[in-house]
Amino acid sequence: MFRFRSIVAVSVLALSVSLAGSAMAQTVLNFGHTTAQNSHYSMGVQAFAKKISELSDGKFEVREQAAGALGGERDLIEGLQIGSIELVISSTGPLGNFAPETLVLDLPFLFKDYEAARSILDGEIGDELLAKVSENNLVALAWSENGFRHITNSKHAINTPADLQGLKIRTMENAVHIEAFTAAGASPTPMAFPEVFAALQQQVIDGQENPIPVITSANMWEVQDHLTLTGHVYSPGIILASPSLWETLSEEEKGWFEEAADVAVAATRKKVEEDEAGGVDKLRGHGMEVIEKVDVDAFREAVGPAYKTFIAKHGDDMLTRIQDAQK
Ligand code: EAX
C-alpha cells in the first residue's frame, strides 16, 4: 500500500512539475497587421501560429492583432524596434523610412507579373534586401505578398492618367509612391491604412490604391464607386520580428520561426491568388464600376519621373539587376 501511494505521489509531483514547467515557459507572441481578420495577411498569421505551436510543442502561442489593432504599419515597425510587439506582417509602404534600400521595390511597373516578383524576392536579390532590413534594428524573416495595386475612387471612372488630375488619392507613407502620383497629376495624401476607410467615408480624400485582397477585405465598395485595374505596382509583404524577441531564442528556435515564416508566406500567396480569381467579380457584384481595359503604357509614362528621382537619390544598381532578372 505504502509503495503504491509513493508511486502515485511521485507521478503526481512529476506531472505538476512538467505542467508547471511548460505553463511557465509558454511565450505569447503578438503578431500585428493592418488588414482584416481572415484576409490574405491573416491567413499567413494563422498558418504561422499553427506551425510555431507545433514545432515548439506549444511553447510559442501567437496572438493575432489584426485590422490595425496596434496601429498602422509604421507604428507596428517602430513597435518591433522598441520591443512592444513581437511579430509583424507589413507592406513595404513605410519600410523605406527604416531601410531605404527597399524603396526600389516600390517603383511602379517594376515587376511584370506575380511569377517574376515571387522568384526574384525568393532569390538572391530578395535575400540581400532582407539582410539590409535586418541592419536596421529589425529581424527580416521573409518576403510575403500584398499584391498588384489598383486605383479606386468615388468621383469618376479613371480611364487614363488625365482622369487622375487633381484627385486626392491616399498613398502609403512612401516617397516613391508620393512622387509617382504627383508626377501623374494626382494630389497624393500619405496616410496610415487604419485611417483610410473613415477618410474616404468623410470624403477627406477621393480615392486610394491597394491590391484586390485589401480592397475586398476592407469592404471598400461601401465608400468607393470606381476601380481601375492599373496594376501600377507590385506590393510585397514582409514578415518581421523584434530583435528583443530574437535575441532570446536558441538557434533551434530561430529555425522554427524561419520555417513558420515560410509556411505563412505560402498561405498568404494562396489567399492572394484566390482573391485575385474572384475579387473583381465580387466588387462588381457590390456595385463598383470596374475599368479592366487600361492603357498601361500611358500610366507607365505618367509615373516615369519617379524613376529619375529614384535613380538620382539611390543609383540604379539594384534596379538594373531586378530589370535584367526579368528579361
Ligand atoms: O499592407 O497601407 C496600405 O495600403 C497597405 O497595402 C496595407 O496596409 C496592407
UniProtKB/TrEMBL annotation:
Top-level lineage group: Bacteria
Keywords: Signal
One GO cellular component, as annotated: outer membrane-bounded periplasmic space
GO biological process, one term: transmembrane transport
Signal peptide: 1-25
Annotated Pfam families: DctP (PF03480)
Coiled coil: none
InterPro entries: DctP_fam, TRAP_DctP, TRAP_DctP_sf
GO molecular function, one term: carbohydrate binding
Name of the protein in question: DctP family TRAP transporter solute-binding subunit
Source organism of the structure: Allomesorhizobium camelthorni
